[in-house]
């Protein structure tokens, strides 16, 4: 059974702080890794993808991947109240569909 | 470019009644997915289509759920008969490239079974 594990939270940070969200996965054959953001009552939207070990930065967002440890993380710098949402970690392996974790709820207080 | 369109957005039915959800993917997207999302959970795959072919339906409860994607474009997901435990959000998503995890989701169809 392929699994993607996330701490459900809630993770609470003050405005301007760094939010750190973590994810582990069980299938070593996984090839691609994604972070989706889901606002309450809305559908998931892709915010970051990462395919190789290391860091990938996009604006205030940095995705980190360590395949040896089967670990993916998302850092949000200068967190804003508009970042308050559920963040879904998702893992993809060729020939299968995207597998999602349960999500981590982030709350940014002003 | 229009996004993934789903209907209805909300549906309330009595248990044992049938229900159907419709999805129109982004134009040109060959891969279409139906996911189920329960409150506080991540989306779970029900079925994946490559064009008209259902390539992964292993998680679809075939005793009561069925799906079709005629002509490789629109898709319909049906539940008959519905059970109380089917209350959830049914998400349709599409992607343009085979073998990618970059999905575009519709707004979802929220089902309540009474």
Please, could you describe this protein's structure?
The complex is a heterodimer of chains A (110) and B (114). Chain A is 0% helix and 55% strand. With 110 residues, chain A is mainly β. In chain A, strands 2, 4, 5, 9, 10 and 11 form a six-stranded mixed beta sheet that branches. In chain A, strands 1-3-8-7-6 form a five-stranded antiparallel beta sheet, with no helix packed on it. Chain B is globular and about 40 Å long. Chain B has 114 residues and is mainly beta. Chain B has strands spanning 5-7, 10-13, 19-24, 31-37, 44-50, 53-56, 65-68, 75-79, 88-95, 104-105, 109-113. Classes of the chains: A mainly beta (110), B mainly beta (114). At the A-B interface, strand 4, strand 5, strand 9 and strand 10 of A face strand 5 and strand 10 of B.
Distance between the termini of chain A: 40 Å
Q: What is the mean predicted local confidence, pLDDT of chain B?
A: 94
How much helical structure, as a percent, in the residues of chain A?
under 10%
> What is the radius of gyration of chain A computed over CA atoms, rounded to a whole number of angstroms?
13 Å
Number of helices, counting only DSSP H or I runs of 4 residues or more of chain B: 0
Label the structural class of chain A.
mainly beta
Overall mean pLDDT score of chain A? 94
Report the major sheet of chain A. Answer: 6 strands, mixed
In terms of quaternary structure, what is this? Answer: heterodimer
What's the overall geometry of chain B?
globular
Tally of individual helices of chain A: 0
Query: Are there runs of chain A of 5+ residues with pLDDT below 50, and where?
Result: none
Order of helices and strands of chain A: EEEEEEEEEEE
The biggest sheet of chain B amounts to: 7 strands, mixed
Q: Give the radius of gyration of chain B.
A: 13 Å
Number of strands of chain B: 11
